[in-house]
Write a structure and sequence with these properties.
This protein has about 290 residues and is of the alpha/beta class. It is built from 13 helices and nine strands. The protein has a single domain, classed as Rossmann fold. Strand 6, helix 5 and strand 7 form a beta-alpha-beta unit. Helix 1 runs antiparallel to helix 9. The longest helix is centred in the N-terminal third of the chain and has 16 residues.
Length: about 290
């Protein structure tokens, strides 16, 4: 599966990825873990003696961008393991086994086993929130607590692809600098400036829109949960959602309320909730996983 549309596009994404990673302002290590489906890239930071916290980013982004405003604060309390999703726009590299038989739970199992992690807590944003829920459902014995940002409980018959098209088009088709700014504002709440006033974020995000092949994520199947499955993860899950998040407006918030999930809503935030109100979200994450 081709991750980038060209070698030039891949280089620009990696170059700006590294610039963003340098802005984390925390001591960190990068590591590649070989597995059935290819090589998974992880970034670790924080004291290895502290409780492990696994982080999953969304579709069309990566660990370097996703945790830019969170890594420093979280690493004071946890041993952070930020995973670049295989098939995503980070540094993970799928092989020929990354195909229709791909199994998210098996992929995560292999990464955790290589790190000698038995039971974990997980935080994820957007598609990363789905991965957190999926793993908690399929590996309850390995998952202590999960926290889902800019996500919802996966129920119903709506198509994730159709929802994304409603939100990302037409700007994503024509990723000029101005359209990139328009899209970031569309996705955000009142604090969109955390994206639009950062030259490196704008450069990286535009490079992703232009150069990342979104179909490379197609083998991560997002399937709806049954009522029984939803109930099985309710007590170990917290959702943090912005009221201005277009995904929340298109049904995500209503689903959380309807299924009586443990959720907190923030009127000033959008889909980039952990960037837009990072101090509040960092405190929520620290409190939730430390209690």
């Amino acid at each position: 599966m081709k991750i980038y549309r060209s070698k030039k596009a891949g280089k620009q994404i990696h170059d700006t990825y590294n610039e963003l990673l340098n802005m984390w302002n925390v001591d960190k290590e990068e590591q590649d873990i070989a597995g059935t489906y290819g090589s998974t890239h992880i970034i670790t930071c924080g004291d290895k003696g502290k409780s492990p916290l696994v982080l999953f980013h969304g579709v069309g982004d990566n660990s370097a961008l996703m945790w830019l405003y969170n890594a420093q604060a979280l690493s004071r309390h946890f041993h952070i393991i930020a995973i670049d999703t295989i098939g995503g726009s980070g540094k993970s590299r799928p092989n020929e086994n990354y195909n229709k038989e791909f199994d998210d739970a098996k992929w995560i199992d292999e990464v955790l086993s290589e790190l000698a992690l038995d039971k974990i807590c997980i935080a994820g944003v957007s598609h990363g929130a789905f991965l957190a829920q999926y793993y908690a459902l399929h590996r309850p014995e390995r998952t202590e607590k999960i926290l889902c940002m800019a996500g919802s409980v996966p129920v119903g018959n709506s198509s994730p692809m159709k929802t994304m098209m409603k939100i990302f088009l037409p700007e994503a088709l024509f990723p000029t600098k101005q359209n990139t700014i328009r899209l970031l504002k569309k996705l955000s709440g009142e604090n969109s400036n955390v994206f639009t006033e950062s030259p490196i974020i704008l450069e990286h995000y535009r490079a992703l829109l232009k150069g990342f092949n979104n179909m490379a994520m197609a083998y991560h199947k997002v399937e709806p949960f049954s009522d029984e499955q939803v109930a099985s993860i309710r007590d170990k899950t917290l959702y943090l959602v912005g009221d201005e998040d277009p995904f929340a407006k298109l049904g995500g918030k209503n689903a959380l309320i309807r299924y009586r999930m443990n959720a907190k809503f923030y009127p000033e935030a959008g889909h980039g909730i952990n960037h837009e109100i990072s101090d509040k979200i960092n405190n929520e994450i620290i409190h939730y996983f430390s209690s």
